[in-house]
Amino acid sequence: MDELELLTALVEMYEDKHYPISPPDPIEAIKFRMDQLGLSQKEMVPYMGSKSKVSEVLNGKCPLTLAMMRSLNKNLGISAEVLLQEPGAGFPEALQDLEWHKFPVVEMANRGWLPKGNDIKERAEELMHGFIAHAGGIDAVPAAFFRRGKGSRYNSKMDSYALTAWCIRALLLVRKKLLKNKYAKGSINLRTLQDIARLSYFENGPLLAREYLEKQGIYLIVVPHLPKTYLDGAAFLMPDGTPVVGLTLRYDRIDNFWFLPAA
Q: Domains of the chain, with CATH numbers?
């Protein structure tokens, strides 16, 4: 018996190495599960969105989205590694309270922040997961301090999802550029701010201001605002403590530029 068990183990190891069995095609796995449970395409609508979408997916005309995969895994018991076509794979951790379809993914794609596609809204979750990952992950997304006047309130029509997308984009751009100097905490004081303000005298003052701040280890970037953010600028810290000043230049005037960083 011991010899037989050893030979069986050796055969399995040999087959796993030289003749690995690939996971089944996800569409074929769905069809097989439908056949097992006696489900029609119409009965698949709750798991895949609409009758037309079910037909498109089963006919290979439309890829599965993460939302569909999660639903098929939960309700029909199709494994994540089969749906994702990756041995031992699991779904990305779902972030609580986030409704992915509310992100302005179409506008973001039009700006080149996300890849374009006909089904971009349906693939919002996977696209935003990639977008966040390139910015350093959800833990790196900053809690920004937004510039606003004394006694003012956030606009009641503000789109918090668009605002979050703007912050992530700002962080992503910052991560692509390394500063030569490291920020020293406490190095910015009233005199420093006065020196920056004096640069407004020069025609190329904004460029000089950015250069000055970068020498202090502080980022100054411009990211155009997204619709319904009503945003002029924001300041935040990167995970390592590096300060970032982000401007939208929603009002593209020189006085607006100088007012926001100084304030």
A: 15-91 (1.10.260.40), 142-262 (no CATH)
